[in-house]
Amino acid sequence: MKAFTPADFDFTFLEEGFCARDIVEQKINESSLSDDKDAFYVADLGDVLKKHLRWARVLPRITPFYAVKCNDSKAVVMTLASLGAGFDCASKTEIQLVQSVGVDPNRIIYANPCKQVSQIKYASAHGVQMMTFDSEVELMKVARSHDNAKLVLRIATDDSKAVCRLSVKFGATLKSSRLLLERARDLGLDVIGVSFHVGSGCTDPETYSQAISDARCVFDMGAELGFNMTLLDIGGGFPGSEDTKLKFEEIAAVINVALDKYFPVDSGVRVISEPGRYYVASAYTLAVNIIAKKVIMKEQSGSDEEDDGTNDRTLMYYVNDGVYGSFNCILYDHAHVTPTLHKKPKPDERLYPCSVWGPTCDGLDRIVELCALPDMQVGDWLLFENMGAYTVAASSTFNGFQKPDIHYIMSRAAWQCMQQITAQGLPTVAEDQGTGNMPSYCGRESSLELPTKPHATHVL
Ligand SMILES: Cc1ncc(COP(=O)(O)O)c(C=O)c1O
């Protein structure tokens, strides 16, 4: 993998002792002298690195193939490419993006079970062999359009408790899996494994257990039919921030037990995953500016109830990014977003019932239906944390509102740690046993410690 320079990423070094929030502050201060108060992001690429190290620590057997659809910013793709991750691409454009930063085709899985024929041909011409399927028609298309596909059968999961369900659209049942495997064999295709997705925003870790056990059944069917089944792909579904009930580590613990039971290390099966949200959600903070405001006085109710004066009005704030932009996550990703104040409120500051709206002329463009905020003015800022997943990737410029600029940052310690990993990979079990081989850069910042468990699967 080619080593990139900071200029390739277009990020700014974060000086020691500073954090993403300081950069948000700095950008806001810079804007205070002008009328130009466009919404903007600060994205900490060091946070993506920390996620990668955390992944390697708790899921050491599983190689992450980042789901590009979640956030296709080139800087994110370059960061993960430098760290040795693989990539889950949904389309020709995503394959092009990943290959444009020098990723080898064997680090790509074309994980869309329903592909356009011309895009299957593109994958074939560009050496991308691993791809998912869940139907007979897809098998026939691949047989005609790809020279050497390595097929992965996507099976359905019980994703009824997930925030975003996917098995309503994709995934073969166990019963149809046998028929599909037979058809693949008749067509002379090579099936190498099984994939699934438990739904994005998983709330029940047992779904992974069940899906891994189902995958075992399909592996056995495949082996019976003569396929060399070597790849298990456990999809995505992991949380990307700390504000979810179910924590990443809890899910990982359940997955590790299920893997040990159904795919023990000595089975020789390579395990990969397609995390999207996990890697990027917490790296992005969005700052939006209040462009308009309305005060709605409550009608006199005539009641004798005591009123301390806070209940006489509600405030409507209009900001310069909305559900047709970054907050499309509210519509498409079932997200609930919470504004935080840029200016610290005074201890006794009165809060009002407020709603927050986007800038377009559409009534659907509402970001927050009801929250408590102080009386703010046009020109004040609101911040939204954990805005990296399914936000910038699906935003539009509806009504002519441009997408916010993204300011990338990374600490020097994180940069040096990343360089070390690009050059030497994550340490293998043997290297971990002696502390002498630990890249010393990586321990200087909290959460940049390297994993201490085996993770040989990270050598791609
Ligand atoms: C096939 C596939 N893989 C991975 C992902 C990423 O999922 P998540 O962001 O929940 O990790 C998705 C999301 O839709 C997907 O469709």
Detailed description of the structure:
There is one protein chain. This protein is of the alpha/beta class. The chain folds into 2 domains: about 240 residues, TIM Barrel, CATH 3.20.20.10; about 90 residues, Lyase, Ornithine Decarboxylase, Chain A, domain 1 (Beta Barrel), CATH 2.40.37. The strands form 2 sheets. Strands 1, 2, 11, 12, 13, 14, 15, 16 and 17 form a 9-stranded mixed beta sheet that branches. The longest helix is centred in the middle third of the chain and has 19 residues. The N and C termini lie close together (about 10 Å). Bound molecules: pyridoxal-5'-phosphate (PLP). Pyridoxal-5'-phosphate (PLP) binds next to helix 11.
Percent strand equals: 15-25%
Radius of gyration: 24 Å
What's the CATH superfamily of the largest domain, by name? Alanine racemase
CATH classification class of the largest domain: Alpha Beta
Q: Measure the end-to-end span.
A: 11 Å
Number of helical elements: 14
Category by helix and strand content: alpha/beta
CATH architecture of the largest domain: Alpha-Beta Barrel
| Total beta-strand segments | 17
| CATH fold-level assignment of the largest domain | TIM Barrel
* Share of helical residues: 25-40%
- pLDDT < 50 stretches: 429-441, 453-460
